[in-house]
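Let us practice reading a record.
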Amino acid sequence: MHANATALIEMDWDAFDPARIKAVRHQLADHPLLQPDQLVALGKRFQGTSHLFTFNNNAGADANFDDVARLYPNRRSVTDTLQGINEAKAWMLLRHVQADATYQKLIDLALDPIKPRIEKHDPGMYYRAGWIFVASPHTVTPFHIDRNHGILLQIHGTKKVYVWDAEDAEVCSELARDCFHSRHELDEVKWREEFRERAHVFEVGPGQGVYMPITSPHMVETGDDPSITISLTYSTNATRRNAMEHVLHDLLRRKGIKPPTVGKHPLLDRLSYASASAMIAMHGVGSRPPACPSLARRTAYAVAD
């Protein structure tokens, strides 16, 4: 572990609020494991597994993120895509890179030193993961939400990152969050062009990044050069409670009961959390586990699903 090492990720920790979007800086842009040659090697190791997805860049902000791999496939090999990323008109996702022992050490190197600072405000960090995105110029990562807190770190090239407040129900409804946490469905997370006016916009280059709380809607556009980005994600006690409450609310909706907004009634939220915890411990959601595996597996590192 690297708890006493120099922090490679910097932000205003005195003003850190786990529920608020924030700009960050970092010192990972020159790390050897995040350079193209090592990413080619990692891509080859991940070839044929659920850790690797490649897409063409025809998807826009309004594409359904769940369907991108099926609707916008990239037919080129890992090597051809990465080595020719400038002209490939594609983007590649290396997901759950912590499954590789070498990259798990990189995740630890980045997160261990800042864990005490995060846990001062947001205790119980677990389910850590790394996601590496390599993209051609002028590529869009469609509008979507994630089920963990995330720290996006730009390594090469530039990106324009649009992020919306997690509680902005105009951009992403409570129904959408319920469905996402319970069934990992993004059908209710729908892009509208007028959302741009409500976004926090960050133009990030190497050494810059953005902290995004759980289910903060976001969409990303790359600039004129190829882009490499790593996103570090993790769960906490609070994200676990939030997700469980949404899981129970989804179940209530399917029984014809309209639940209140998560976070508006603390006592009811605590009861929801207790009920959802018991339900998931016994038999998942209905006859299956919840879509968010971190609810059933409180492990140090995320497990690919």
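A brief commentary: Residues 285-289 have pLDDT under 50 and may be disordered.
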